[in-house]
């Protein structure tokens, strides 16, 4: 079994366990793993031919020397040789003094060769070619005369070996287009077909339409062939089935045949670790959008408001659509630094014109402020880079989704395992979990101060929360203070201290907590439960919020044992 | 821009349409950005979409479900990564469920379907091959039987799913090696297909002859739910062992439906069906009619629907277990999927099964290449069908009513069976077998004397041994 994916999986499984050790371990493993993979999984380009070793000896030969077939001439019989070694061996036959070069043990300095053609890219020393034969062939092919002609298809070649290679296959593989042209190479045939078909379509009167029918028939013949081969495949498959049925017939020992044959081949298959985070403005744009929708639509906030009591989530009613809606919002919001980063990029670039497109000012009065505030808020969380994690197993994804809150389950404990635990455990480990959960394997970096990172997250939450409060005011006077300030002040203009406060606020508000981070899943659950009056919950949220308002620092809030 | 979306008129709340509507129009189909999602993001998004879609299906907002399904179709693929594969089968199941609200269309679409019994058998073979679950279950079952049958001269084994002769070949060898000598052995195999039983009989008789064990094979061609207990021909004086591997849950079907029907049910017969068509939580009209017509359960609906315990109590299951109990087996070994796929609501079943099958798909991912045709077959023809059954079917049709071990524990206990803790040696053999599997994702856990086979730490299958309480 390959080692990467399972290890990633186990780190996620690790989260299920209650003890802190596990969490630490998991965190550390995430951070180590996240430090490792390269950030730029750019599409790998083929190496340009001729980008030589910089300290190689650059040799420029004249066209004449390059084209000379037999540079080494025997002084006796005038016979030419391509290589000096061969000439020396030849001299031996004339009883002339000869000397074979010995292989030198010391490293020979690498030589690279320039193309004598001044217009050629390989004329530049930086693109010199690595071997003499190569440069010779290059020069002939690209700048020389095509002396060798194929008798069958009249194709001309400059290098004899190319011509030989062609002659061997010429005619053996033929591609005949309906228009009558013959091709020896499949790629040229296909290129031609593209044109030919286009032409044929243009002139429907074209006589070749008949022959296309023919080719269709031909094609269907092929299909038949395909079918029969499928049938034979089926037979083949039945065959092994017989084997399977007989499985164990050889067994002499008790359980021997129950013990599986190990599949060495099947386990050796490497798990592709796909390029994960290529910041892509387009993608960011959309994420941004979702994000905003999530934040700005009014319904989802009900969902958020309902989040606080995880404990009451046992009711069985199916989830309302609002829950899933909210989900989406949060999904993208907590979709880790990546999404945020991307969106911020675009936001910054497009100067918030994007936002306005997606806001519904009529429906939601705060829209504007939040929208413009977003980019400035996110600025703080901008610095983080997101290294690519390895491929995640479906199980790990589900767990992550549950932690992010995009998974819903009302009764199943397993779904909420992570969340369930958090509601009973102390707030610190909770935090650790939620932290690593929502930041995931993506953005955790060892060198990043927790706090720093946190802040990024917090900000986004603060943002979300504040809008909740804002919303709250519209309905409920008890929100008074904050929401007032919320509505009147733009996020962007807010100075750091206020931001902090705002942030701690939102944390305090969520209280049972964790809630905001992990709790989203719980929130959805609650939404499913759906039985509560929202007003009550908001009140509830408020009252639990009160005592914590004073703590200006997020850390304090987290450390506060009362929070449990 | 989404305000103007026409689909919002379908639901009462424009917000409900929100996630879909916001994505569907305006960006030019088919959502070009979706294609740019990377594996993990795509996976997460798929999960989200699946749940959103299921929500819509559950609440009957088909327009929205349709939008979600459309989106998923751009991301999911039966040949992609694990989550893409899973999503494919879950969406298929959800779509199937929607389709079932129009029984006519549904039946028409499935009218020419060919079900190849041989293919199904083949796929089950692959399941046996690719996963250690059945092997572990067999090893433990056999060990429990050997231990329970110590010193017995006449042994009768009833296999409620006689599909795999390997298990009994192994047992024959075990028994032949007994210090007190092999017993007279009779194996009764229950299976739907005669060919399978014939094949099994052939192999086992041959093996018994080779080992010189007095042996008799008694084939019972029957579906488990229609099994006539007398056909098992259990005689007095013989020691009985019963083996049920992934079978018992199917007995929960049909009458498990009782709780699902609302008090409205009887009215349906009076033709109140148009609203019902959209009530996806309920079974479809066709099913209801069918069932109500066949077994006169409809009268008892109301009493059953209120009780929360009713999921444990199931008349048919009670009857079946009672019948088995009446045979007073010395040991009964039960292997079951250890996950609750018998929830009342679609959402419960969906989220639970999502986890369960995600783990199974992960197992396959670790063992087979993505291009493997065999893998595709197991996923499609075994797991895909199970998922479809769990998600799309209701009532008697819904056979895959997997439940957790504690549920079985309670149920079997109520039926008069006492748990027989599995021996240390059973555990040892199970562990050794998994070690030989050269894949460290699998492990076994002991739970109250039962064995739970896990992938990573996700419990997937449980094996437990029982005997009649006196």
TrEMBL record, chain A:
**Residue stretches of biased makeup (Low complexity):** 23-37
Enumerate the SUPFAM superfamilies for this protein. Answer: beta-beta-alpha zinc fingers
Among Pfam families, the record links this protein to: C2CH-3rd_BIRD-IDD, C2CH-4th_BIRD-IDD, C2H2-2nd_BIRD-IDD, zf-met
Mark the transmembrane ranges: none
Please provide the record's keywords in A-Z order: DNA-binding, Metal-binding, Repeat, Transcription, Transcription regulation, Zinc, Zinc-finger
Q: Which residues form the signal peptide?
A: none
Q: Is Zinc-finger a UniProt keyword of this protein?
A: yes
Q: Which Gene3D superfamilies match?
A: Classic Zinc Finger
What is the top-level taxon of the source organism? Eukaryota
Name the Gene Ontology molecular function terms of this record. DNA binding; DNA-binding transcription factor activity; zinc ion binding
- Segments carrying the region annotation (Disordered) are 1-56, 530-564
Query: Which residue spans adopt a coiled-coil conformation according to this UniProt entry?
Result: none
Q: Where is the C2H2-type domain?
A: 72-94
Q: Which GO terms describe its cellular component?
A: nucleus
Name by which UniProt lists this protein: C2H2-type domain-containing protein
Automatic annotation (TrEMBL), chain B:
> Which residues lie within the region annotated SAW?
392-467
**Region Leucine repeat II (LRII): which residues?**
199-231
Motif VHIID: chain residues = 155-159
Span list, region VHIID: 124-189
The record's annotation in Pfam families points to: GRAS
Q: Which domain of life is it from?
A: Eukaryota
Question: Which key words are in the record?
Answer: Transcription, Transcription regulation
Family, as annotated: Belongs to the GRAS family.
**Protein name, entry field:** Scarecrow-like protein 3
Q: Which source organism does the UniProt entry give? A: Escallonia herrerae
């Amino acid at each position: 079994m390959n080692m990467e994916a399972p290890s990633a999986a186990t780190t996620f499984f690790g989260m299920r366990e209650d003890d802190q050790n596990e969490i630490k371990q998991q965190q550390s493993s995430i951070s180590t793993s996240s430090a490792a993979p390269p950030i730029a999984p750019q599409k790998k380009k083929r190496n340009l031919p001729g980008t030589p070793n910089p300290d190689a000896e650059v040799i420029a030969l004249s066209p004449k020397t390059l084209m000379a077939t037999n540079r080494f001439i025997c002084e006796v019989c005038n016979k030419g040789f391509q290589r000096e070694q061969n000439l020396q061996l030849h001299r031996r036959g004339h009883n002339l003094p000869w000397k074979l070069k010995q292989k030198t043990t010391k490293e020979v300095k690498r030589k690279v060769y320039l193309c004598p053609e001044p217009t050629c890219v390989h004329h530049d020393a930086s693109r010199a070619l690595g071997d003499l034969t190569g440069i010779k062939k290059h020069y002939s092919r690209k700048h020389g005369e095509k002396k060798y002609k194929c008798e069958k298809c009249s194709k001309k070649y400059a290098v004899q070996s190319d011509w030989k290679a062609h002659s061997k296959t010429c005619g053996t593989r033929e591609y005949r287009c309906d228009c009558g042209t013959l091709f020896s190479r499949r790629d040229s045939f296909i290129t031609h077909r593209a044109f030919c078909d286009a032409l044929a379509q243009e002139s429907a009167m074209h006589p070749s339409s008949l022959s296309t029918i023919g080719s269709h028939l031909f094609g269907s013949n092929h299909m038949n062939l395909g079918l029969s081969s499928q049938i034979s495949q089926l037979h083949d498959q039945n065959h092994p089935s017989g084997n399977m049925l007989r499985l164990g017939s050889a067994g002499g020992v008790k359980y021997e045949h129950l013990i599986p044959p190990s599949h060495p081949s099947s386990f050796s298959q490497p798990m592709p670790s796909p390029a994960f985070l290529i910041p892509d403005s387009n993608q960011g744009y959309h994420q941004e959008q979702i994000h905003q929708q999530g934040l700005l639509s009014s319904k989802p906030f009900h969902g958020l408001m309902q989040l606080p009591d995880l404990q009451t989530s046992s009711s069985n009613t199916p989830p309302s659509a609002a829950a899933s809606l909210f989900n989406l919002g949060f999904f993208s919001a907590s979709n880790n630094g990546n999404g945020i980063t991307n969106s911020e990029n675009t936001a910054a670039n497009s100067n918030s014109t994007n936002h306005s497109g997606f806001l519904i000012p009529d429906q939601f009065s705060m829209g504007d402020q939040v929208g413009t505030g977003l980019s400035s808020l996110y600025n703080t969380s901008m610095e983080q880079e997101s290294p690519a994690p390895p491929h995640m197993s479906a199980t790990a994804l589900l767990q992550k989704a549950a932690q992010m809150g995009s998974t819903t389950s009302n009764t199943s404990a397993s779904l909420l395992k992570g969340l369930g635990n958090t509601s009973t455990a102390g707030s610190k480990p909770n935090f650790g979990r939620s932290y690593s959960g929502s930041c995931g394997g993506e953005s955790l970096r060892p060198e990043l101060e927790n706090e720093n990172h946190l802040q990024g997250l917090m900000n986004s939450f603060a943002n979300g929360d504040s809008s909740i409060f804002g919303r709250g005011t519209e309905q409920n006077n008890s929100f008074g203070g904050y929401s007032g300030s919320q509505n009147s002040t733009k996020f962007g203009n807010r100075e750091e201290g206020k931001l902090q406060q705002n942030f701690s606020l939102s944390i305090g508000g969520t209280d049972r907590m964790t809630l905001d981070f992990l709790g989203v899943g719980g929130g959805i659950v609650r939404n499913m439960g759906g039985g509560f009056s929202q007003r009550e919950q908001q009140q509830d949220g408020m009252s639990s919020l009160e005592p914590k308002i004073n703590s200006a620092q997020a850390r304090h809030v987290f450390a506060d044992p009362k929070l449990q | 821009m989404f305000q103007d979306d026409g689909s919002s008129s379908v639901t009462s709340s424009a917000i409900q349409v929100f996630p879909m509507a916001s994505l569907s129009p305006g960006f030019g189909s088919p959502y070009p950005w979706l294609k740019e999602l990377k594996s993990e993001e795509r996976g997460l998004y798929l999960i989200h979409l699946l749940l959103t879609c299921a929500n819509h299906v559950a609440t009957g907002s088909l327009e929205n479900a349709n939008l979600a399904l459309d989106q998923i179709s751009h991301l999911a693929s039966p040949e992609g990564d694990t989550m893409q594969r899973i999503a494919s089968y879950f969406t298929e199941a959800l779509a199937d469920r929607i389709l079932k609200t129009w029984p006519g269309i549904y039946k028409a679409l499935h009218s020419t379907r060919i079900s190849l019994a041989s293919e199904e058998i083949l796929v089950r073979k692959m399941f046996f091959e690719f996963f250690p679950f059945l092997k572990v279950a067999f090893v433990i079952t056999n060990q429990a039987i050997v231990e329970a049958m110590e010193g017995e001269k006449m042994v009768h084994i009833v296999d409620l799913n006689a599909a795999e002769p390997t298990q009994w070949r192994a047992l024959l060898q075990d028994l032949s090696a007994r210090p007190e000598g092999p017993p007279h052995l009779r194996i009764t195999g229950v299976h739907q297909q005669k060919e399978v039983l014939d094949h099994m009989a052939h192999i086992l008789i041959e093996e018994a002859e080779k080992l010189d064990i007095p042996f008799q094979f008694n084939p019972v061609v029957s579906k488990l739910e229609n099994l006539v207990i007398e056909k098992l021909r259990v005689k007095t004086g013989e020691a009985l062992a019963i083996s049920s591997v992934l079978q018992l849950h199917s007995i929960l079907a049909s009458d498990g439906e009782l709780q699902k029907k609302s008090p409205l049910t009887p009215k349906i017969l009076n033709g109140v069906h148009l609203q019902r068509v959209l009530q996806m939580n309920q079974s479809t009209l066709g099913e209801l009619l069918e069932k109500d017509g066949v077994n006169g359960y409809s009268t008892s609906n109301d009493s059953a629907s209120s009780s929360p315990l009713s999921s444990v109590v199931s008349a048919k299951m009670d009857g079946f277990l009672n019948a088995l109990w009446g045979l007073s087996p010395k040991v009964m070994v039960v292997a079951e999927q250890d996950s609750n796929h018998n929830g009342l609501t679609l959402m419960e079943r969906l989220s639970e099964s999502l986890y369960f099958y995600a783990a199974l798909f992960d197992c396959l991912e670790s063992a087979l290449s993505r291009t493997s045709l065999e893998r595709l077959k197991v996923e499609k023809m075994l797991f895909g069908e199970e998922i479809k059954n769990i998600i799309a079917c209701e009532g008697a049709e819904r056979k895959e009513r997997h439940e957790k071990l504690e549920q079985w524990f309670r149920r079997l206990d109520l039926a008069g069976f006492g748990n027989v803790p599995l021996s240390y040696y059973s555990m040892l053999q199970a562990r050794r077998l998994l070690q030989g599997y050269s894949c460290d994702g699998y492990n076994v856990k002991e739970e109250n004397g039962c064995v739970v086979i896990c992938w990573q730490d996700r419990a997937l299958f449980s094996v437990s041994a029982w005997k009649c309480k006196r």
